[in-house]
Amino acid sequence: MHPQPPRRTTHAYGTPKNLLVHDRWGGFGRPVLLLHGLRYDRTMWWPVAAELGDDFTAVAVDLPGHGQSAARDRSGLRLLAHDLAMLVHRLDLRRAPIVVGHGESARFAASFADRYATHAVITVGGASPDPLLDGVPEAYRQFAVARPDPALLEVYHGWCGEPTGRRSRNVRLGEGHFPHLRDPAGFATRLRAVR
C-alpha cells in the first residue's frame, strides 16, 4: 500500500518584496482562485477547497501583508491583479479561472476580471452583517478570525476609489458573511454548478 499524496500543497511565488504564498488542491479541472477578505488569510478557504475534489484546481492566495505573503507599502488593484495574473500564468492552469472574492476582495476579483480572462467572478460575504459568525460551526470558526491591524487597512484604503468595469459574469453564492464556512460542502456544490 502506497501513501496518498497530500491534497493541499503550499507554494510561494515572487521575490522577497512581492512574495505571494498560496495553497493548491488538485492538478486538473476548472481552476478556482480563492481570495480572502481584508484582515483574513488563505486558510479561510481550506474547508471549501477540500470539498471541491478533483473536478477543480483550487488556489487560495494570501494577499500582500496577510498570512505568509510579504507586506507592501501599497496594494493597488491593478498592481495586485498583475501579480495574480503572473501567478496564474506560472501555475499553467490552461483554463480561465473562476475567481471567488470574499468581502472587500470582491472588488479585487472584479478588477482582475476586467484585465484578465476569467470564467466567472463570485462574491461572498458583505459589508458587516451582525453577528458575523452566526451559523458557522465551531470547527470552522478558526478559519474566520480577522487580524486587527489598522496599518494593514491603510495599505488597502485605495481599493474603494479604484474603478472596476465588471465586464465578467458576477455570481453571488450564499448570504451572510461566511456562507462558505457555514456549509462548505453545499458551497462547493453551488460552485460546481457555475458554468
Automatic annotation (TrEMBL):
Q: Please provide, in alphabetical order, the Gene Ontology terms of the cellular component aspect for this entry.
A: membrane
On whether Hydrolase is a keyword of this UniProt record, the answer is yes
Give the superkingdom in one word: Bacteria
Q: Which Pfam families match?
A: Abhydrolase_6
Q: Which residues form the AB hydrolase-1 domain?
A: 32-161
GO molecular function, one example? hydrolase activity
Give UniProt keywords alphabetically. Hydrolase
Name this polypeptide is given:
Alpha/beta hydrolase family protein
